[in-house]
Amino acid sequence: MPRLETDPAFNPVPPLAAKAAVEKYAYVTLTARETPGTEVFGAVDTDSRSPSFGRLVRKTDLPQATPQAGHKMPDARLRAHMLMSAGYLHGIHLGKHDAVLKVRAAHAPTSSFGFAAVALSLAHRSAAIWVWHKDDESSDGDEWKATRVIEIAADPADPLALPETLRRFGAVPPLVTGLELSPDDCFLYVSCWGTGELRRYDVSNPFAPTLTGSVRLGGVVGSTPHPAKPLVPVHGGPQAAEISADGERVYLYSSSSTPWDSQFYPAGVPGWLARVDVDPDGTMSVDRGFLPDLEGLRPRCVRLGN
């Protein structure tokens, strides 16, 4: 009879995450731009002591998938299931100009807060992060509200250097497409796909975030290169991130969706996967030794494991 063992990558409570084994692989779902619906499951070696470190070491075709529909801008109402005994849906209105793209809840089972990312504020071309939480001042203690805690401004740019979609604005909006919390709920990572920036905030007090670090890779303007290839511009930007269990490494990947790619990166977005090292003081740097060849495929999802 097969023996059942606990997955070493699974940690039921946040304090155990920091003690988890260091990831050995990044498991990646890859797609071919030329043939939508064709997907490949791959494994990239993330063990820095391995001779195949930073390489795509395994891949297998997945069953035919439904072609990606792309990101659709939701309305300005944040709708999130709160894990409550009643099990009903709460709606929190953020404003008619704020389009929420990502929602992230705190990991700790006793926490009653989370974050929502506004990819693009149509009024200011900026991005914003809101913290949603229980309203302690409500009469029954069962109401929820949202507080705007982070504002990320657009980057001014020469209109002639911008794609047609952005030319009349004279700036590149952050376009927040990724929002991740560290396993201990103390740090928030924000992926700005438009400006090519990954931001790290200390959210130990979720109502007063502090920016602790930032790195750039790609971007609509600048196309910041990877340190492994300092003379080669990087197209696309960090679309999302996956954080290691100990919080010391962050994996970034580029692909967003075909409709958005063509609007903001008309020259195309090649698939890339990068790793960012996080120092104890919060500063971040792109790992120059990690830039796997994805064989022309584009990552859509990344998960870490052993």
Explain the layout of strands and helices.
Blueprint: H1 14-17, E1 25-31, E2 39-45, E3 56-61, E4 77-81, E5 89-93, E6 98-105, E7 113-121, E8 126-134, E9 144-152, E10 155-156, H2 164-167, E11 171-172, E12 176-181, E13 187-192, E14 197-202, E15 210-216, E16 240-243, E17 249-253, H3 258-264, E18 273-278, E19 284-286, E20 298-305
Antiparallel strand pairs: 1-2, 1-20, 2-3, 4-5, 6-7, 7-8, 8-9, 10-11, 12-13, 13-14, 14-15, 16-17, 17-18, 18-19
How would you describe the overall organization of this protein?
- This protein has 306 residues and is mostly beta strands.
- It has one domain (23-305): Methylamine Dehydrogenase, Chain H (7 Propeller), CATH 2.130.10.
- The protein has helices at residues 14-17, 164-167, 258-264; strands spanning 25-31, 39-45, 56-61, 77-81, 89-93, 98-105, 113-121, 126-134, 144-152, 155-156, 171-172, 176-181, 187-192, 197-202, 210-216, 240-243, 249-253, 273-278, 284-286, 298-305.
- The strands form 6 sheets. The protein has a 4-stranded antiparallel sheet with strand order 3-2-1-20, with no helix packed on it. Strands 6-7-8-9 form a 4-stranded antiparallel sheet, with no helix packed on it.
- A hairpin with a 5-residue loop joins strand 18 and strand 19 (284-286).
The CATH topology is Methylamine Dehydrogenase, Chain H
Q: Using DSSP, what is the number of strands? A: 20
Q: Specify the oligomeric state.
A: single chain
Coarse shape: globular
Largest sheet: 4 strands, antiparallel
Class per helix and strand makeup: mainly beta
Amount of helix: under 10%
Percent of residues in beta strands: 35-45%
Strand order of the largest sheet: 3-2-1-20
In N-to-C order, the SSE pattern is: HEEEEEEEEEEHEEEEEEEHEEE
CATH architecture name: 7 Propeller
